[in-house]
Amino acid sequence: MVRFKAVILLLIVVLFVGCGKEDTPEEAFRDIQSAVFERNFDNLAKRLDTEVFFGRVYDDITAELVKNCADYGLKYPNDPYFQHDRDFIEQYNLKHRELHLEFLSKATEAYFANIAEPEKPEDNPHAYVACEFAKILKASKAVIKSTVVNENHATMTVEMQGDSSLRGGFIGKLVFELGFDFDGGVWKLTSIENCSELTPALVDKAEVVWITFF
Questions:
Q1: What is the mean pLDDT of each run of 10 residues along the chain (214 residues)?
Q2: Phi/psi of residue 76, nearest 5 degrees
Q3: At 48, phi and psi to the nearest 5?
Q4: Is the pTM above the cut of 0.70?
Q5: Which of 161, 156, 159 minimizes the C-alpha distance to 189?
Q6: Torsion of CA 56, 161, 27, 40, to 10 degrees
Q7: CA–CA separation, 193 and 191 (whole Å)
């Protein structure tokens, strides 16, 4: 569903805003930012396995939606997705998991290939989402607030803040807890650790997109 893809997209967009020495999680985050702004997927892959990461985020968000589906059903009575029980949502997302992840993968490819924005979204949905992603990047910034390192794992607090534009106002302010693992001598982004806190706000934003455009 479009709104579920929007939740994933909004959740992931923060990661892209904003050696000769011992590597650090902060250096990894800056490398990810540079790779995305420069549209250099090879450099991004050194710090982030997008396929594994997207899959993990998808599963974590699904768990949160399943757990709180009754609350979302009351809050969004006009959204048929939430007018079902936990089993339905869990099975629906599982059934369409590969389809949703394939869409994210193709949208990622479109972004790094810098494919032009289509005149209409339906002409090339992947390129359209990629171009919207780029616009959101320009309308927001991400700042590292703190990092806690425990041996081969680190948790980084990143604050995302939108600017005064329409898209910046839509993003608003979000705080992410990003998980990094030390693998093969380098730090790599592996997870978003506070999905339970983020999902309600991201669902709210996705519903605005759904109501406005669909």
A1: 58 50 91 96 97 97 96 92 94 97 97 96 94 93 96 96 91 95 95 96 83 48
A2: -125, 70
A3: -155, 125
A4: yes
A5: 156
A6: 70
A7: 6
**DSSP classification of residue 52:** H
Question: Under the phi-then-psi rule, with left for phi > 0, alpha for psi from -120 to 50, and beta for the rest, what region is 100?
Answer: alpha
- Do 128 and 159 contact (CB within 8 A), yes or no? no
Q: Which two tokens stand for residue 173?
A: 């302010």
d(CA 83, CA 77): 7
C-alpha to C-alpha distance for 2 and 99, rounded to whole angstroms: 12
Give the residue carrying structure tokens 């109501």.
Answer: 211
State the DSSP string of 117-177: PPSSGGG-HHHHHHHHHHHHHHTEEEEEEEEEEETTEEEEEEEEEE-SSHHHHHH-EEEEE
Closest to 25 in 3D by CA, of 197, 196, 191: 191
Paired with 140 in beta bridges are: 162
